[in-house]
Amino acid sequence: ETGVTQSPTHLIKTRGQQVTLRCSSQSGHNTVSWYQQALGQGPQFIFQYYREEENGRGNFPPRFSGLQFPNYSSELNVNALELDDSALYLCASTPDRNYGYTFGSGTRLTVV
Amino acid sequence: DAKTTQPTSMDCAEGRAANLPCNHSTISGNEYVYWYRQIHSQGPQYIIHGLKNNETNEMASLIITEDRKSSTLILPHATLRDTAVYYCIVINQAGTALIFGKGTTLSVSS
Description:
The complex is a heterodimer of chains A (112) and B (110). Chain A is mainly β. Helix content of chain A is 0%, strand content 52%. Chain A has strands at residues 5-7, 10-13, 19-24, 31-37, 44-50, 53-57, 64-68, 73-78, 87-94, 102-103, 107-111. With 110 residues, chain B is mainly β. The termini of chain B are far apart. The A-B interface holds A 2, 4, 33, 35, 41-45, 48, 55-56, 58, 90, 92, 97-98, 100-106 and B 2, 34, 36, 41-46, 49, 85, 87, 93, 95-103.
């Protein structure tokens, strides 16, 4: 049991549309990160939130945005979808970075 | 870019120890070594981490060389379910991002 739940598991969107992916973390996990994993590659860091504020961002454009809520849930929003946005999107959370992150099983996004 | 170098793939017989090496020659004094693995179609799973001492938990052992420029993850008795991609990552306590390389694909066979 992972303790981090992501929804939906699979999603198909059309180029130009907007998408919201959701993540529910364990109680006490104040830090949440989002990653994008293209086929055959390792996960790439998108951004991280700590206590509802963004505190780190990878090399992703502003059309990738996020929110973290007091109930330990979070969202990843992607506007103006492009074909290259097709990937597995992973959410990871931790109560303390010293203890390692717990990852969800991801949302597989396909942009057509 | 990832700060680590790992072999692309390794094979191991079921029941034998799997020793996965990682080079991190540019590691800084305050950076930890973390290991994660990813089984097909799942999210990465935390295995173990260490700073300079060897570490052991219920999943694996981590051996870090004295100069900290390399480390080895040891799965003492590999099973078929240990077949996965194993990632070695270095990060400091204040670091926000896990930088994943391509990892080592470990194949355990009977």
